[in-house]
Specification:
2% strand, mainly alpha, Four Helix Bundle (Hemerythrin (Met), subunit A), single chain
């Protein structure tokens, strides 16, 4: 049925549309920074992070997760939360120093290494927690640093934006945490069954309202507290010898997405013309012999986060 095939294609494209929207705002953040609009540049990266959070959830809800989507998401994240924040920070704080661009290089390197490790170790989707500080969090911290320190009331208290040395320490610290083994909590699932779920959902709603109502005063401090509490908790657990012997993030028994919709791989070949399917799927064509080295049920897709 042509109408149904078109609808299926639209559903498959939907998660990638969120990802490409993420890319759009990441690129425009660099454009805005080059024009001197540093406040809007920071908010573009925040919007990119919101879209990044929704693309994986849309893929799971529509059951259209794929290896293509996971790879596209990682490439876009490297730009929106690696290159874009580094460029924005360079234009604001580092452009007057001859070798300060090295700090941007260190940060971008940490982001791409962290994303590559995430895909290898966690298959592109956090199970119980993030292994190291998530790159969107690090990117938003850098992006909202200038809007926070120039906000009315804050600028009188702090004396204005911080200096290059402070920014350098922040960038190196975020780079270390991204490549560390510190576990960070994932965003809880929104559910309304059970007292605990209702409390968590209510808390998320309050945080969302604060982020929308007073973004310049709330987002940066909240993300800094989130980052510091993860590092502090890991340090205390280490002193108490409560850290697990094996990495719980790689536990195959752990549920991948508690409370979420079932994730199913999408066979993109099934949406193509019959001639294309016969040409690309030997098991569907009686004219092509079976290959003994080819699995009987290949799975060319993986789950997208």
């Amino acid at each position: 049925m042509p109408g149904r095939a078109g609808l299926q294609r639209g559903i498959i494209i939907l998660p990638s549309a969120f990802t490409l929207g993420n890319l759009f705002f990441g690129v425009y953040a660099m454009v805005a920074a080059s024009r001197g609009d540093f406040i809007w540049a920071g908010w573009c990266i925040v919007i990119a992070a919101v879209l990044d959070m929704f693309d994986g959830r849309v893929a799971r809800f529509t059951r259209t997760g794929s290896r293509f989507g996971a790879e596209l998401d990682s490439l876009v994240d490297a730009i929106s939360f690696g290159v874009a924040p580094a460029v924005v920070i360079y234009h604001i704080f580092l452009a007057d120093q001859p070798w300060s661009w090295i700090l941007s290089f260190i940060y971008v390197t940490a982001v791409v290494v962290r994303l590559a490790r995430f895909n290898v170790e966690q298959g592109g989707e956090a199970k119980r927690a993030f292994h190291g500080l998530p790159s969107p969090t690090a990117g938003m911290i850098l992006a909202t640093l200038y809007p926070f320190f120039t906000a009315p009331g804050v600028v009188e208290w702090t004396g204005g934006p911080p200096g290059t040395q402070f920014v350098g320490v922040v960038m190196v610290g975020l780079s270390v945490l991204m490549m560390s083994h510190v576990p960070y909590q994932i965003v809880p699932t929104i559910r309304l069954r059970g007292t605990r779920a209702i409390v968590v959902t209510t808390g998320l709603g309050v945080l969302a309202v604060l982020a929308l109502a007073v973004p310049r005063y709330f987002i940066f401090p909240f993300l800094v507290l989130y980052t510091l509490q993860g590092a502090a908790r890991s340090f205390v657990w280490g002193l108490l010898e409560r850290l697990p012997d094996s990495d719980p993030l790689l536990d195959e028994e752990a549920p991948a997405d508690d409370g979420q919709a079932e994730v199913r791989s999408v066979d993109y070949d099934a949406l193509g013309p019959e001639a294309f399917r016969s040409r690309t799927r030997p098991e569907m064509s009686s004219e092509l012999p079976d290959d003994p080295d080819t699995p009987s049920n290949p799975d060319p897709t993986e789950t997208r986060r």
